């Protein structure tokens, strides 16, 4: 990392308003940084207004002369960050979007900039691809590192830059496990209903009545795995001209709600209320007091329920209780899925 960028990163994280020269020097202890290069970087920040010398502390006699203490002007740093983004944007491929960085820290952009430059170079030379390839192959083409997209944050960066869809990348995920309703392989409507269930027991209980349901597929979420492998659905079920609606049914505990929330960030998932409401009619059990509460996930989940149901669920979770999917018997699950209530609810949603 460049000397100036290292100093900027350090002072951006500071809570105090001044910094002594010796603290700046300590950032490069053990590094091969010459005194002149260090002094020039500090003076550049001083001249730009990011660092302001504290006159009462004095300056070094050795040239180039530096102040013994500096006042940090974070407002100027923000302005400098915005000007830098505007300047960099002029040199990039027009499809690369930097808008998201105006709300992020300068440190985040500094971390991403080497990757952005590599992507920019690739796009200027080759343009956008015409055919899709697996993530490791595209990752190697863009950065020379086949693991960058899957393991080093490349997927999130490409999304932030607005490039993910245009780069035609096949996600490297486990195959999605689901069953297809042959009776609805050619539905009269373009709308296809798909039910995701968190646990294997519930999947096996509903499977025998899939053909008598209104659903095109029954998907086994396999706990946390659904947050990654749902991307495989359009590749495994490549039926054209379909408007897919996904419904989710999992355990009523903090972890089950978190899984729904994380998967919903990738694809809109409606909580399967007829199942959840049937679970709330059962007594809860204790034993999940060690799970972490995610306020954002809980709030989003509760917004689908009536006021009474919200209060009931909050009381249950608040005392360390939970309601597993298995609280409903196979017979109850099948009856609910084929009920008129489901048909009416689907029509409204």
Automatic annotation (TrEMBL):
Provide the Wadjet protein JetD C-terminal domain boundaries: 195-331
**Protein name (record):** Wadjet protein JetD C-terminal domain-containing protein
Q: What's the source species' lineage? A: Bacteria, Bacillati, Bacillota, Bacilli, Bacillales
List the InterPro entries: JetD_C (IPR024534)
């Amino acid at each position: 990392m460049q000397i100036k960028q290292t100093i900027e990163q350090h002072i951006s994280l500071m809570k105090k308003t001044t910094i002594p020269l010796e603290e700046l020097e300590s950032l490069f202890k053990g590094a091969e940084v010459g005194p002149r290069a260090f002094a020039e970087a500090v003076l550049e920040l001083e001249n730009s207004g990011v660092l302001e010398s504290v006159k009462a502390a004095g300056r070094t006699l050795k040239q180039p002369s530096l102040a013994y203490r500096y006042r940090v002007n974070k407002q100027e740093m923000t302005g400098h960050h915005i000007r830098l983004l505007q300047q960099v944007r002029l040199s990039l491929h027009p499809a690369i979007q930097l808008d998201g960085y105006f709300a992020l820290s300068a440190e985040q952009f500094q971390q991403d900039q080497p990757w952005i430059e590599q992507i920019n170079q690739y796009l200027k030379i080759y343009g956008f691809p015409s055919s899709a390839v697996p993530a490791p192959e595209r990752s190697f083409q863009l950065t020379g590192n086949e693991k960058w997209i899957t393991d080093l944050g490349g997927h999130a960066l490409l999304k932030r830059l607005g490039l993910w869809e245009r780069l035609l990348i096949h996600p490297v995920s486990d195959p999605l496990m689901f069953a297809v309703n042959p009776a609805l392989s050619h539905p009269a409507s373009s709308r296809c209903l798909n039910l995701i269930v968190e646990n294997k027991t519930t999947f096996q209980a509903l499977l025998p009545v899939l053909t008598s349901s209104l659903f095109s597929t029954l998907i086994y979420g396999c706990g946390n795995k659904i947050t990654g492998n749902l991307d495989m659905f359009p590749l495994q079920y490549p039926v054209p001209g379909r408007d897919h609606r996904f419904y989710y049914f999992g355990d009523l505990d903090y972890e089950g709600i978190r899984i729904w929330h994380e998967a919903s960030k990738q694809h809109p998932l409606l909580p399967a209320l007829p199942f959840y409401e049937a679970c709330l009619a059962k007594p809860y059990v204790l034993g999940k007091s060690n799970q972490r509460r995610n306020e954002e996930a809980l709030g989003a989940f509760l917004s689908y329920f009536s006021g009474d149901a919200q209060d009931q669920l909050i009381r249950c979770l608040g005392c360390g209780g939970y309601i597993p999917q298995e609280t409903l018997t196979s017979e109850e699950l099948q009856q609910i899925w084929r009920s008129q209530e489901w048909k009416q609810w689907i029509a409204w949603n």
